[in-house]
Amino acid sequence: HDEASADTMWEVLHQDVTSGRAHEWGGRVWVAHGPSGRALAVLDAEGDDGSDLPLGMIGFAPGDAVAERRGLFELVPMSSSAAGAIKTDNLFRLRHVQTGRWVDFADDAVIDRRPSISEMSAVAAAASAKQAPTTLPAQKLLVAGRLVATHASKDDNVFSVQVVPEAHATDCVQCDHWIRSIRAFVGRQAKGHGGSAKDLSRPRSPLKGRAGAECGGDPKALSKVLGELIRFVTVSDNSDPFTREGLPHASRQLILRQRGVLDLVIAAVQAPLNGGSISADDLLGGRTPAAKELNRALSLCMILFRHLLRSHDANKDYAMRFVPQLQTMLGLGIRAAGGLTEVFLENESVLQLVTDAHVGKFLSLIREVGRQARYIEFLIVLCQCNGLAIRVNQWRICQLLLSEASELLPSLSVAPAASKKAAPKVIISGDATYFPFIKGGSMDLVEWLQQEHKGSSNDQKGPVGYFESCLGLFAALVEGRNLRNGPALRERLPYNLLATMLTDERLRSVKTRPDGRAVGLGICARVASIIRALYVDAEPHQLMARVKPVRLWQNVPVAAESGALSSRLTTKLAICWEQFDPLKAFLAKHIAKFHRMDATMIGENRVVLELLRLLLSLMRLGFYFSSELVPLLPNLLKLLD
Description:
- This protein is α+β, with helices and mostly antiparallel strands.
- The protein is built from 27 helices and 16 strands.
- Strand 12 and strand 13 form a beta hairpin.
- Helix 3 packs parallel to helix 7.
- The two termini are about 40 Å apart.
């Protein structure tokens, strides 16, 4: 089992749960499942025909005669000399008090199987076609047997007590009141369409935890609970749940998923819409204070959903069942795109399920809802997994977006310099229907960025964020030497255009955003990645043959004199080795300015990182002589410090 699992945590309690004494052999006990608040029991304790009786879970009800007949056990030591208090190193068997049967693990149960790729794809395709969603054939990812009560005393039905770390037990109990609050919100909304809050409630855990005020149907109270949960599953100094990122807390992610929080946040988003308390248009527009508060709460639901999936493969597998629901939530202005993106991020098995309908859904959102960066970021996620290109998705997006919907993308061109001393300018243009903010249909890129920066409080949601994400998508579409997409991207982004943007001092000097990220530097970083993927690490350039390292230091001088330590080119293709000389000169000059890394200089660090990747590709592909690299080594070593 997984030690971080909340599902495997049980507590042994005295028949009199108020007793504080230590457990001793011969005493009657409850075996309570901590997360669910239920107790292990023989389901048919009245019958006794000699056959094995099934074990299951009943409501934890100390003092109830029927519950005690079903759920009381005694711990029988394996050693006849055992006496006194029970210790963690003792082995014992569990015997049901009423029937005298032993608890045994039978492995002949029907196995719950995991849904196949084709079955999950069928569900996603049905949702894309707006058909009624079908249910996946399994709800569990792991194979499990079953517990029975048997008269046979087998050698393998032996148990022991394992102490749960206090921090883990505290985490399991701490989230209990949060979960009850979300359930209360969903239940309150369910009352409006025939449901009952009682139907959605769960028994409280027998483990002692702090009680929290239930939020009922109040979105403001729900927002507070969701904020606490976001801080619970992440490690960060930032206390704002809307901007908090940090590191995911893996064990807490697992606990919350097993406690049903992923299902709950989806239900919490659907409940107000299905219950009729608000329409989709009112939720998106935020026309009233109540609508704004509900939009805030549901946005936090989606942010929590995303945090529960970050870097957690098991949770992402589980969340695949919610893809149809997440698709219906797109365009509501509650950050559903972020949650859907996280399901696909670095998830190879899911990325292979992508269809034209998935891509088409986001293209329609770009048309109808607006040019927003998060829609493009989803398309970027579809193009690669763990550093490897997903070819079929690269081809699909290039065809559907660049070939069939190019009007949704901004265009770039280079205007001739006004004089010999003047630098050329980059011009941005776009379809007037989708880019009305570009005055006259075309503008100087730097002037447009400065204009948009002054007029927007959050560039990530506005035209600048969309433009920067488009550049990132262009790089992702040709990553890994995609020969089919290369010609279309080279036609749209010729090398001289990209080189002009990368070396444009005016572009790099555009001021920082309100969130602390530099506008121009972020764009230059994206441009550097396009140059690397589209023009440098591309055909016909070939990697140099690399030599084996010399492990004995005294052999290094002899190996160096013989040339054995030098990489060499094996290609016989006609390659212009001087084509990137101006780019190499810019790399050397720019890296020399930032030989010292400062964590607060986010934009500068992004540019340096992409330039180093570009430098590495140029070096591995044979565009540097050793003599050209020697002057760079001091700065490179300082960057490592």
